[in-house]
Amino acid sequence: MTSPAPVIVIGGASGIGFATAQRLHEAGDTVVVADIDGAAAAERAAELGGPAASARVDVADEQSVSDLFDRVVADHARPRGVVNSAGVSTAGAIADMSLDDWNATLSVCQTGAFLVLKYAARHVVDGGAIVTLASLNGRQPGTGMAAYCTAKAGVLMLTEVAAMELGDRGIRVNAISPGLVDTPLVEGIYLVPGMREEFLENTPLGRSGRPGEIAAMAQFLLSDDASWITGAAFDVNGGAHTRRYPDL
Ligand code: NAD
């Protein structure tokens, strides 16, 4: 669908976010690639070419998120869609986890999800759509992943509440729960000997995902083909939700 109203892809400088920006751009959307790494976001937008634009945003900082939406509305128009793909992951057993590590994950993955939903709710056009990135870990616990699992469980609940609150404006809010997707985020997991193999044994389709396979779901959820879907979460994980999560 081609629309003068832009789609903001937050966390768009890498991985799933960039793959989503690419698909939307190729389909004719005006994409704003937003990321805490403003230089990388600018490079990615330049790679896409016009009319893609870029912005720096820190989802953990309310003023920064507020400024992003104000700037997009001023420079383009009220967005028809928002995808929040910003994320970080820290591993560590609860007994060993510092409060700083806990807060670092929660502030980006959970508070960041809240702040993006807050300003998206204010600025997205009626009839628009919002996509959140949760995770298989939002409903499947993993040892050593308490902060990430807790944050992503929160994203699933935030998505449902936002869908309830925004339904009367026709704004749809849905979550995607990816399994293991090859992006910089999971490079740390691959450093643990045998971990990648264990993940794949626990995935019926026997392989990790490609960022484009998550982007395809995001694009669908932003489109009119998903016009009667809201408050839902979609497992895009090669079937990994049917199995037990490996120990980190
Ligand atoms: P990635 O590391 O490739 O991309 C994440 C992007 O978020 C980066 O560009 C990073 O700069 C940006 N970012 C980090 N902190 C930010 C902040 N405070 N404000 C704005 N941007 C910030 O990771 P990815 O794999 O593409 O992950 C995208 C989303 O999908 C994340 O929410 C992640 O938790 C989720 N997810 C990923 C996987 C996976 O296996 N890759 C699995 C499940 C869920």
UniProtKB/TrEMBL annotation:
It holds the Pfam family adh_short_C2. InterPro entries: KR_dom (IPR057326), NAD(P)-bd_dom_sf (IPR036291), Sc_DH/Rdtase_CS (IPR020904), SDR_fam (IPR002347). Belongs to the short-chain dehydrogenases/reductases (SDR) family. It comes from Gordonia caeni. This is SDR family NAD(P)-dependent oxidoreductase. Transmembrane segments: none annotated. It comes from the Bacteria. Residues 5-179 form the Ketoreductase domain.
